[in-house]
Amino acid sequence: MTAFLGNILGSLLKFIYDMVSQIGTEPANFSFYAMAIIITTIIFKLILLPISLHQSKSSKKMNEIQPKMKEIQNKYKSDPQTMQTKMAELYKEHKYNPASGCLVLLIQFPIIIAFFKVMGNPTTFAFRDPGVYEAMNKTFFWIKDLNNPDPYIWGLPLLAAATTYLQSKTMMTATATTDPQAQATQKMMNMFLPIMIFMAARGFAAGLALYWVISNTFSIIQQLVSNRSLGKVKEEN
């Protein structure tokens, strides 16, 4: 599945590269390849936008009814059958499908992995002629070749970590919960995930780190807009 999706996304990257390479003279420090990665990442995120918005709404709804869920669980903990019936009634009342969040993740996961493969192995999925790929200009400002890791830790690795942290923070705002255990887990993830991304990005091809930064930036903007929109809807209700 991921190989099939990788070929599709790789073809998109190659198509975008062919398009931008025809716009005129290539800037010395901002290659057509870097432009193609950025544009392809944005298109990729736009394709997933309806799924992401549905996931945000589902998470928001789940957190809104969580206190009532806890109340039912505590009240009928000795009667699982009644608990299940009451939970089903609660979901129906609030038009919430508990499986929707998992379904959204299952749809997104193979696509994200496929795109990750494309960025990590461009000659396999996008530029199948190794000679053409090797001859391409792959500069991005201070990075001479996006096929190699960023030579500076303050560059894309740090940006990848910072945008990962900001994305986690915006997600925490959207999915704020009163459950102390869930809050502790969220805070721990928000601390350790950026560190893991930073360490990994130091060894990744810089093109892959660039994709991660652009993807996170898009998600941050999307989540901020979504949080604001959902907040307005809640106020109106």
From TrEMBL:
Lipid bilayer topology: Multi-pass membrane protein
Molecular function, one GO term: membrane insertase activity
Keyword list, A-Z: Cell membrane, Chaperone, Membrane, Protein transport, Transmembrane, Transmembrane helix, Transport
Chief location: membrane
Domain Membrane insertase YidC/Oxa/ALB C-terminal: 33-228
GO biological process: protein insertion into membrane; protein transport
Gene Ontology cellular component list: plasma membrane
Naturally occurring in which organism (per UniProt): Tissierella praeacuta DSM 18095
The protein's name in its UniProt record: YidC/Oxa1 family membrane protein insertase
InterPro entries (UniProt xref): YidC/ALB3/OXA1/COX18, YidC/Oxa/ALB_C, YidC_ALB_C
UniProt-annotated location(s): Cell membrane; Membrane
Entry-linked Pfam families: 60KD_IMP
Family membership noted in the UniProt record: Belongs to the OXA1/ALB3/YidC family.
CDD domains from the UniProt entry: 5TM_YidC_Alb3
